[in-house]
Amino acid sequence: MSIFFILFFGGVWKSFTSGRFEKQLMIQLLKYSAPMILNGIAWWITNASDRFMLQWFMDDRAVGLYGVVAKLPLLIGTFTGVFNQAWIISAVEEFEEEN
Q1: CA 29 – CA 52 distance, rounded (Å)
Q2: Is there a domain that residue 48 lies in?
Q3: Would residue 58 be called left, alpha or beta, if left means φ above 0 and alpha means ψ between -120 and 50 degrees?
Q4: Are residues 53 and 70 in the same domain?
Q5: Which domain holds residue 81?
Q6: Do residues 96 and 74 share a domain?
Q7: What is the pLDDT of residue 22?
Q8: Within this chain, do residues 26 and 47 fall inside the same structural domain, yes or no?
Q9: pLDDT by residue (tens digit) across 3-39?
C-alpha cells in the first residue's frame, strides 16, 4: 500500500515514463540487493515457522493467542519509534535555532 502512495501521490511514477532502462545499473542493483532479498526470505521463514511448530504440538487456540502476543513487541516498537522520530525532529530544530 505504501508503494502505491509513493508511486502515485509522491510523483515517483513520472521518472518511470521516460522509457529509459539501464541494463548495467539494473545488474548492479540486483547484485547489491540479492543478499538482502535472501535475508528477508530467511527472516520470514524463521518468523512463520514458529506458529507451524506450535500448531503441531498445541491446539488452534494456543496458536491464536501466541499470534496476538507475538505482535505486541511490533506494536510497542512502532509506538516508541513514532515518539523517537518526533523527538529527533524537535531536537534538530532546537539545535538549529541555537546556532
Answers
A1: 34
A2: yes
A3: beta
A4: no
A5: 59-99
A6: yes
A7: 79
A8: yes
A9: 677 667 766 666 666 667 778 888 898 889 899 999 9
Into how many domains does the chain fold? Answer: 2
Same domain, 79 and 44: no
Predicted structure pTM score: 0.45
Enumerate long-range contacts of 51-55, CB under 8 Å, 24 or more apart.
none
- Three-state secondary structure string covering the chain: CHHHHHHHCCCHHHHHCCCCCCHHHHHHHHHHHHHHHHHHHHHHHHHHHHHHHHHHHCCHHHHHHHHHHHHHHHHHHHHHHHHHHHHHHHHHHHHHHHC
| Per-residue pLDDT reduced to its tens digit, 41-94 | 998 898 888 888 889 999 999 999 998 998 898 899 999 988 988 888 888 888
Taking each helix axis as running N to C, give the angle between helix 60-98 and helix 23-57, from 0 to 180 degrees, rounded to the nearest 10: 140
